[in-house]
Amino acid sequence: MPGNQQTACNFEQFMWQSMLALVQPASGDPTRLQFETWMPSYGIFIKDGTPTPWGQEPPTSCGSIQKASATTGKTPRVYSDITKQAGSEQPLIDLKGEFVYYGMSVNQSEYTMLTACQLYKANCAGPLKPGNKGIDLISKYPNLSLPDTAVELKTSWMVLDDAGAASGLFYVVPGIIQYKGGPCRQVNLGLTGMHIVSKTPNFPAMIWATFEHRNNAPDCSNTSAPPPLGGSWNFYNPKCTTCTTNTYQPGTPAQVCRMHPDGDSATGTFPGGDDCTADPNQFACQDNTRKLLAESTAAINAINSSVQALIQANPTRINKVWANYELVGNVWTVGKTLPPYLQAQAGSLSAANTSMETFVQNGVAGVNNTYSCLSCHNMQGPTNSQYLPPVGLSHLFDSVQMPGGCSDGSLPATCNAYLNSP
Questions:
Q1: Is residue 326 classed as helix, strand or coil in its secondary structure?
Q2: Nearest C-alpha neighbor of 205 from the set 411, 389, 351
Q3: CA 183/CA 233 separation, integer angstroms
Q4: Which of 125, 279, 320, 330 fits 209 for a cystine, CB–CB 3.0-4.6 Å?
Q5: Of 309, 341, 343, the residue nearest 326 (C-alpha)
Q6: Tell me, what's the pLDDT at 158?
C-alpha cells in the first residue's frame, strides 16, 4: 500500500483483496486454494529434525487415517490439535458440544525467514517465546524483522455433520482433529474465522484483519436478530435465556455475542476515565477515537456489502460461499510506528473475532481495554522496559519446542538479510 493519504476504506479494500486472493485455486493444483498451500506452523516448529520443505505436506501423528472424504471427495488437508484461544487460553465449545479447532500457517517468504534464522530452535528464538532463555535478541538483534512480503494466517474451524457440510453455508474441508494427544478423528470442518496479517514496506507493525462467518453470533445489543444467512447461529442459542454470554464454562457450549460490532468500541463499553492525556499504553482520546471509529465502521459495512454482491454476481469466477463471510475488523498503525502503541493505532480499535477471541472481546487482565490485535501483538519483552525486535509481533514462537541451536550465541549468517531494518 502507498505510504500517504490512506483512508480506512483503502485498508479494508487491501484486506478484502488479500482474502479473495487467498481463496483462489492454487496454480497447478485446482483442488486446493492458495491458502491451503501455505506451510502450517506444525511443519516449522518441530521437536527435532528439520522443518518440512516448502511445497510438501508436513507429517502428523494421524497419517494412517487420511482418506478421501465421502462428502467432498478431498483428502484431508487440515490437521489441528489446537483448541485454546489466544488471550484467554480457553477453548470455544459450539452448540453441539464440539471444540472449535485452530490452524496457523505462513506464506513462503515468512517460511524462508523463519527457517533461515532457525527461529524454530529455542536458543535462537530466545525471548520471542515467553519465559524462554537463549540469545539476547533484544540487545543483539533489535531490528530483526519479518520480510516486507510476509503474511500470516490463522483460521478457526467447527466440526460439521453431513447436513451442515452439504448446506452450502460454509467453506468445507475434510480435516483431522486430535484433542490433547488422544485419538484422531476425520471430520468435516467448516471455516468460521480467518485472521490475515500482512507486512508491507510502509507498515512494519503489519496490517491486521479478521473475517468471520456471517452466522457466527449476533450483536450483544440485538440478540433477537435472525442469522443473516438463515438457519441457526453457529455459537448462540436464542432458546437459552439463562445462559451467560461470552463466558467460558468447562464442558458447556458457549453463548456468544459480538460486543463491539465492526471493532467499534464506541458502540459497546467505552473505557471510563481516559482522555487525551492518557498514558500511551492506555486507550486514546475519546473524541478523536470516536471519529476514527465511525469512519472505519462505515467503510467496513460498505465494502462488505459491495464485495458480497460482487461474489454473488460472479459465480463462474469465484465460489459464492465466500459471500457468507465478512470483514469484522482491521487495524494498523500510522507513521511506521514501532512498537505499535495505542495512540498510533487506527481502524477498528476493538476488533475481535467471536470464534477466536470469544472471551476477551472487552479486554483481558494485563492487556489494554478494549481488546484488539495489537493489544497482545505489541512487542512487549520480558519486562515492562524491554521491547522485542519487530519479529516479536508474531506469536508463532509460542510453538517453539526444539531445544538448542545458535550454539555460538549468534543467529546464522543466512539470517543476515533480516537484521537491519524493521
A1: strand
A2: 389
A3: 29
A4: 330
A5: 309
A6: 98
**SS3 assignment, position 399:** helix
Pairing of strands 203-213, 172-178: unpaired
Rounded Cα distance between 115 and 121, Å, is 9
* Nearest Cα to Cα of residue 349 among 289, 397, 393: 289
Report the distance separating Cα 322 and Cα 301, nearest Å: 16
Residues 252-283: b if buried by 16+ CB within 10 A, e if exposed: ebbbbbbbbbbbbbbbbbbbeebeeebeeebb
Q: Cell triple for residue 402?
A: 526444539
Q: What is the DSSP letter of 312?
A: H
Nearest to 408 by CA among 153, 77, 121: 121
Helix (H, G, I), strand (E, B) or coil at 300: helix
| Three-state secondary-structure class, residue 395 | coil
Nearest by Cα to 138 from 389, 390, 419, 412 = 389
Grid coordinates standing for 97?
A: 458440544
Cα–Cα dist 333/208, whole Å: 10
| Three-state DSSP class for residue 286 | helix
Distance (Å, whole) CA 27 – CA 109: 17
The C-alpha atoms of residue 85 and residue 97 are separated, in whole angstroms, by 16
For the record, the C-alpha cell of 255 comes out as 453463548
* Three-state secondary structure of 180-196: CCCCEEEEEEEEEEEEE
The closest alpha carbon to 219, from 184, 278, 262, belongs to: 262
Q: What is the mean pLDDT of each run of 10 residues along the chain (422 residues)?
A: 69 96 92 94 96 94 66 72 81 97 97 98 95 94 96 98 97 93 93 97 93 97 96 97 93 94 62 37 55 84 96 95 96 82 77 92 53 65 83 93 97 96 66
Q: What's the confidence (pLDDT) of residue 71? A: 60
Which of these, 334, 321, 326, 318, lies nearest to 355 by C-alpha position? 326
What are the CA-CA distances from residue 354 to residues 51, 91, 308 (Å)? Answer: 32, 12, 20
Handedness of CA 377, 401, 86, 10 (dihedral sign): positive
Residue 160 has what DSSP assignment?
E
pLDDT at site 65: 64
8 A C-beta contact, residue 10 and residue 296: no
